[in-house]
Write a structure and sequence with these properties.
ligase; 10 strands; eight-stranded mixed beta sheet; 8 helices; GATASE; globular; Rossmann fold; alpha/beta
């Protein structure tokens, strides 16, 4: 098996690679995790990996005054885009890639909880088609949205947030939602986001109960989706 490396930018500990990590390791990838705002991200640029995976987090791309290290992270992603390097972005990661590609990121309708996405025709023809096995249901957890970057292809939408997933050729897969989450991790999400849930008036028991019903099915479909994209991307 070919040995490959994936660099992972993680913003909070409980939003980790999940089933993406499973798909990567199955294909011979070694994951090297960098904690944003804590670790030096320099090696991501100086020692480029086969893939850069940028994960989610509860801050906004535009909050660079409060979190000044975001500027360096965006610049690093912009450099990788320009070099033709492969990227996967999830939630904040998808927003960071959009911003690095020159698109606007801004507060939008809040979506938290399990709900379906609607694939575009391009989405049906992409790796996202694996989510059909889960009736297109995924975990949403965001309060921001973004404009579609120039040259990107829209893959999925919801009624509230039209830009839910996009691709840039075989180089980028960017997802606003969270198909990477393993059901066993949902409690960490409920604890870590307790303030946000309270402000939104969402009962954690609702998310916990739905996770028990659909979480395993969505995680399995998500792992197949990421594996399919990696194969298509030559990774």
């Amino acid at each position: 098996m070919t040995t490959r490396t994936t660099h992972v930018i993680q913003h909070v500990a409980f939003e980790h690679a999940g089933v993406i990590g499973n798909a990567l390791r199955a294909r011979g990838h070694t994951l090297r995790v960098f904690q944003a705002g804590v670790d030096d991200l320099g090696p991501i640029a100086s020692e480029p990996a086969d893939l850069l995976l940028v994960l989610g987090g509860p801050i906004g791309v535009y909050e660079t005054d409060a979190y000044p290290w975001l500027e360096a992270e965006i610049a690093l992603i912009r450099q990788r885009l320009a070099a033709g390097g492969k990227l996967i972005g999830v939630c904040l990661g998808a927003q960071l890639i959009a911003r690095a590609a020159g698109a606007r990121v801004y507060p939008g309708p809040r979506e938290i909880g399990w709900a379906p996405i609607t694939p575009t025709p391009a989405g049906h023809d992409s790796a996202l088609a694996e989510l059909a096995a889960a009736q297109w249901e995924v975990l949403h957890w965001h309060g921001d949205t973004f404009d579609l970057p120039a040259g990107a292809q829209l893959l999925a939408s919801t009624a509230a947030v039209p830009n839910q997933a996009y691709a840039i050729g075989n180089q980028v897969l960017a997802l606003q939602f969270h198909p990477e989450v393993m059901p066993r991790d949902i409690e960490a999400w409920l604890i870590g986001h307790t303030v946000e849930l309270g402000k939104a008036g969402i009962d954690p028991r609702t998310i916990r109960a739905r996770t028990a019903r659909v979480g395993a099915t969505v995680a399995a479909a998500g792992e197949r989706m990421f594996a399919r994209w990696l194969e298509q991307a030559g990774l």
